[in-house]
Amino acid sequence: MRRKMQLQKIVKRLNGCCISPFEEKMLFLMLQIILHIKIIPMTKSALQIARATYKPKMPEGLKGNVKIKEGAATQSVRDQEEIKKLFPITYGMPIVTFTGSEGKPGSDTPCNVGVILSGGQAPGGHNVIAGIFDGIKRLHRDSKLYGFILGPGGLIDHQYKELTEAIIDEYRNTGGFDIIGSGRTKLETKEQFDKGLEILKELDIKALVIIGGDDSNTNACVLAEYYASINAGVQVIGCPKTIDGDLKNEQIETSFGFDTACKVYSELIGNIQRDCNSARKYWHFIKVMGRSASHIALECALQTHPNICIVSEEVEAKEWSLDHIIDQIAGVIAKRAEKGLNFGTVIIPEGLIEFIPAMKKLINELNDFLAHNQEEFDLVRRSGKRDYIISKLSPENAEIYASLPETVARQLTLDRDPHGNVQVSLIETEKLLAEMVKKRLDEWSKEGKYNGKFATITHFFGYEGRCAAPSNYDADYCYSLGYTASMLIAAGKTGYMASVRNTTGAAAEWIAGGIPITMMMNMERRHGELKPVIQKALVELEGAPFSYFEDHREKWAIETDYVYPGPIQYFGPTEVCDQPSKTLQLEQKGRIVVQ
Ligand code: FBP
Hints:
2 domains, globular, alpha/beta, binds 1,6-di-O-phosphono-beta-D-fructofuranose, 24 helices, Rossmann fold
């Protein structure tokens, strides 16, 4: 955008030379093109060049002249009356599916579309955009795609760029969100919606695609309802994104990016396991991203068979204390030490700390306190902050806070995210556990209960996987999601999320369509207020992935049964390159997907 301002300055200066507004516009466009040509080409690796030619596999239903099939009216998962009242227009719409038929899809008029990337990066975002682009161009070659820059903020601030064929081609099958950037601005007020509408109207945009997680898709639905209620003539379509894997339900099999991110982390964990099985001297404590849900930790465990994997949802359900978790880890270490195995791996989900009931209470009190006293807290000297917090907390929480290592205590008071929550990615749970386990083993050693060697190395894997080049699964899934979004637009739909199901089968048999977003909603308390939101999917302890893990974890704990998955393969046999995540395979096993 700085570049755009510089260009505007140059054009203004030239304006002193008396050029007409039309000439000014043309000059501006030409300068933009020249600068783009200079800036966009990137130095590419041989793999990137080869990968650029990959043609994503697509469902048959999206080929040819796409026809729409509408199902019966739907309901929200819970709180039907309240959701219906809040979404009188977009509530109850049917699930739709697409079936291909002979001929080319077409529309008499071009359809301009806007796209936004919202929240954390996830592999495959560029392919969603490429899918939308190819879809709307197939419908009418004069259709245009505009990308709003740096997330929802770009819509509000009118920062955008037209995504031309040359730009799209640069980004096909690549990781990252750098084509237009992403951001975490929440799109939720009427003022923002109206400001956004101004630029949508100016660019003659008929539909907006919001690519995001559960919160962004909830807001997409609120926006769809608002635009429909004022007859704005702008449709809104959502796309399920997040490496965390927590935006899924009966209709949305998985969020994109989960597959690739987990494959990258599993490769790294496998490499570490091979290293520790070779040197036999370290215990590796590995935290993986995922915010609240433990889907990533569980998937990595299914792929690599670590000695220990903690699942936050189990910790909460069984009300385990931090002390109990430490005992469990130390217990496995002691058992392996008896066999002379003084090495191993522990996988820790990012959000663990918030699922330990006592810690959860402490964090809630801290959130409330800091929401009202941040300024005063900021004025306290760094050396006095810990005592200041202890003096302000209830006695029960003050005691827990005082018992935490200095670093973790400090991390718990760092800046909150836009929702007022602790940024769990900043809390070094892996170090906390490694330190506390060491203390426990020292005690056991003094009591004669443990006689091993214990050296630790800690890791945090998150950012390493969020922008990886998408696996074939994510490249295909994302492209199909984007193309589906364009077909939903062509069908005049709004308030829908693009959906592609049956993805454990061959791509040709995948089922593409749209799910009314209201169908996934329920009412939840957020910041003291009841709000309609898409239900977040946490790990189900009754579900097939956790059950499989539960059946095998004892064996994995004591034996060294490591799996080394190796890097993602982009070229080669389908059983090596096209396999979906273990989580999805276990969840879908035996499930019949109906059209
Ligand atoms: P989204 O839910 O927006 O996809 O982001 C997920 C995530 O990658 C989490 O796993 C992690 O806790 C968080 O983003 C980190 O946020 P940031 O990118 O702002 O550091």
